[in-house]
Design a protein that fits this description.
By secondary structure, this protein is an all-alpha fold. It has 21 helices and no strands. α3 runs antiparallel to α4 and α14 packs antiparallel against α20. The two termini are 32 Å apart.
């Protein structure tokens, strides 16, 4: 298998991405780390982030090892499945941990670079984020390729263990990091900004370090784990579909690997473009790098398609068209469309965000109503784009075409995650500039880059949600195909004994029908499953929102306690106890993440055990549909509330310190757990349900 050119190309590209990430780490480390005071602030942030991730690591590894033992026992004849589970969980944790460590290394260097020039600061922040992006795609592609190539049977089903491990850890990372970052942020805002009228990152605020730590464990580590698992799960889903729909076409198995390898090279070109281009709008420079990456990938997709899939009769989908290039191009187009749509709903340059700022003139309640309106309207265009992509991809190449569109979309993750991680690095840089007594002009530069980073974070969340929805659809298709294959195999002997001849596709269909594997809306079992699945995202997000509220309440009480007992903090003669708030949020986040993280696992197993595969299939669809809408609504509304506050702080609608600004801060506070905790965490939750369902097929 290792002599296959497609596998060698894929492994080479994956290793190239990892080596490039290591070189960028060295480059970031070589930058000037600023004054001693700036370094001490950065050290406090790094210490808090590392302490949280160490505790999260213990919790996640304990649960992962327990589940791996269960998989070893249940799938005794497939030890590689349980090993894959541990590998997926480990790589997901590793991608998040290294990404976070580099982000806290880059933040102080970005602040120092901002003293000299905006472009220098942009380069440091972006390259720090690019480490995370390259590690995510490099590790994901490497581990999936190795597990497939090293498996003596090359059984794609064994890869579902890897997908489940990555997905489960991603839920923990997204939930725990999201609870941490938003509890600290809300505590710092409500007890600091609103009650004491502190500025952003005022060193007198006892929760300010916890707030900066949260940017890293939520937006860096959490996002890295999220997209790592989405990338790995999408690739594995495509391989499953290829093995079931085109079992005799080797090119169909290798093609998704090659698409991922090509896009890693494209990501490197995009990163190079951003480092070379100087001047102009920072947003334009960053988006330009993504465009370069996409164009390069699209150009090389054609020779890859011709070499692997065209001209082989075994690669023709029965009864359908077999034009494989276009679904891959559609995946790139969906990425561009989702970026543009999310940018429209969350950028200060467009009507939705400005309407929220205008609504703040009449109070807090109208700000909240306007934000909810924007969030619900924001679902329409992305869903239309996703529906069009599903229809077109299916028309070109059936279910395998949809899988290719998802793989192509996720192959852009290297450059996309670099853009996302850019945001928390510049946010932290601004805080370090203030607390480290950097020149006032430095904060102006970091604020400008932070505003760009805020938009980048919003659009990349939209990308993550859209790709997760499409990936889950592919997994559902894999579940149905896997279920029908097993049902046909079990039904065939019984029907043969009854004197019926079963051959080919017609025989498999008859066997499936005989086994009762039909998903019809006239079947009450399917409807029951749809309702149960539709409920799960609402329960999941309710747990997440409640966790943030309770954790933030504890931080608020701590900030109030310190400011009342130690009046010297307000006067600037005493130093706030930052570590106390960090410890409170760390313990609360780790405690609160357990129940919602295990909810999708428990629900899937119970429905499969008590109600059977038909109800479970309906549950998968219900979870995908409502999960997609809930995630888009929450992330778009939260991003719009956040930027409406920033728009007012720029001097519009009363400016900073006005009643309108107070209303916008309230909206931003409500939107924080929407966009950074509950909404993004729905992505891995959807895929945990679907991957686990595929694993349970063989136990029915």
């Amino acid at each position: 298998m290792f002599s296959n050119p497609a596998i060698l190309l894929t492994l080479g590209a994956a290793l190239l991405g990892i080596v490039a990430a290591a070189l960028l780490i060295g480059w970031v480390r070589s930058r000037d780390a600023g004054s001693e005071k700036m370094r001490s602030v950065a050290a406090a942030i790094a210490e808090g982030a590392s302490a949280y991730l160490r505790r999260q690591l213990i919790a996640a590894v304990s649960i992962a090892v327990l589940l791996a033992i269960v998989l070893f026992l249940v799938y005794a004849g497939k030890p590689i499945l349980a090993l894959g589970f541990l590998a997926g969980a480990g790589c997901s944790l590793l991608a998040g941990f290294i990404g976070m460590k580099v982000a806290v290394m880059a933040n102080v260097r970005t602040a120092q670079a901002a003293i000299a020039s905006r472009h220098g600061a942009l380069k440091v922040a972006f390259n720090g984020g690019a480490v995370t992006g390259l590690l995510v795609v490099g590790l994901a592609l490497l581990v999936v390729t190795l597990f497939y190539a090293l498996d003596p049977q090359h059984d794609v089903f064994n890869l579902t263990g890897l997908a489940l491990g990555a997905s489960l850890v991603s839920v923990f990372a997204r939930l725990g990091g999201g609870i941490y970052t938003k509890a600290a942020d809300m505590g710092a805002d409500l007890a600091g900004k609103l009650e004491q009228k502190f500025d952003e990152d005022d060193p007198r605020n006892p929760a300010v370090i916890a707030d900066n730590v949260g940017d890293n464990v939520g937006d860096c580590a959490g996002m890295a784990a999220d997209v790592f698992e989405t990338y790995a799960v999408s690739l594995i889903g495509a391989l499953l579909i290829a093995s079931l729909v085109l079992p005799d076409c080797q090119g169909a198995i290798f093609y998704p690997f090659v698409l991922g390898g090509i896009s890693i090279v494209g990501a490197l070109l995009g990163i190079g473009y951003i480092n070379v281009v100087k001047g102009g709008n920072p947003s334009g420079t960053l988006f330009g790098g993504m465009i370069v990456s996409a164009i390069f990938s699209a150009i090389l997709y054609w020779p890859a398609t011709s070499r692997l899939l065209l001209g082989d009769p075994a690669c023709v989908i029965p009864g359908g068209r077999s034009e494989y290039l276009w679904p891959a191009v559609i995946g790139l187009a969906v990425t561009a469309a989702v970026f543009l749509i999310t940018n429209y709903y969350t950028s200060t340059h467009f009507k939705p965000v400005r309407s929220i700022a205008r609504a703040s003139e009449t109070g807090h309640a109208t700000n909240i109503i306007a934000g909810l309106e924007v969030g619900q309207f924001s679902t329409a265009l992305p869903v239309i784009v996703i529906c069009a992509a599903i229809g077109a991809s299916y028309w070109f190449a059936g279910l395998y075409g949809i899988a290719l569109a998802v793989v192509s979309m996720l192959s852009m993750a290297g450059i996309v995650i670099a853009l996302d991680a850019f945001g928390p690095i510049t946010d932290n840089a601004g805080g370090i500039a203030v607390m480290g007594d950097a020149p006032r002009e430095t904060r102006a530069v970091t604020d400008q880059l932070d505003a760009v980073g805020n938009t980048m974070k919003a659009v990349t969340k939209g990308y993550a949600i859209a790709s997760a929805g499409l990936a889950a659809l592919v997994l559902f298709g894999s579940y149905v195909e896997e279920l029908r294959t097993h049902a046909a195999a079990e039904a065939a002997p019984a029907l043969s004994q009854a004197g019926e001849a079963l051959e080919g596709v017609a025989g498999a269909a008859a066997s499936a029908a005989a086994a009762g594997i039909q998903f019809s809306l006239e079947d009450p079992r399917v409807i029951i499953g749809l309702f149960i699945g539709g409920l799960l995202p609402f329960l999941f997000t309710a747990f997440a929102l409640g966790a943030v509220g309770r954790s933030a309440g504890a931080v608020i009480q701590e900030v109030r306690r310190q400011l009342s007992q130690y009046p010297g903090i307000l006067a600037g003669t005493e130093r706030a106890d930052y570590g106390k708030a960090v410890d409170i949020v760390t313990k609360a986040a780790l405690k609160e993440m357990i129940v919602p993280a295990l909810l999708p696992v428990g629900a899937t197993v119970l429905v499969a055990w008590l109600m059977g595969p038909i109800v479970l299939g309906g549950m998968l669809v219900g979870t995908i549909v409502t999960g997609l809408f809930v995630a888009i609504t929450m992330t778009s509304a939260g991003g719009a509330w956040d930027n409406a506050k920033k728009y007012i702080e720029e001097g519009h609608h009363g400016g900073k310190g006005s009643p309108q600004h107070d209303a916008a801060v309230t909206g931003d506070t409500v939107g924080d757990p929407y966009k950074d905790t509950a909404g993004p965490a729905v992505n891995p939750m959807i895929k945990v349900v679907n991957v686990l369902a595929i694993l349970l097929v063989q136990l029915f």
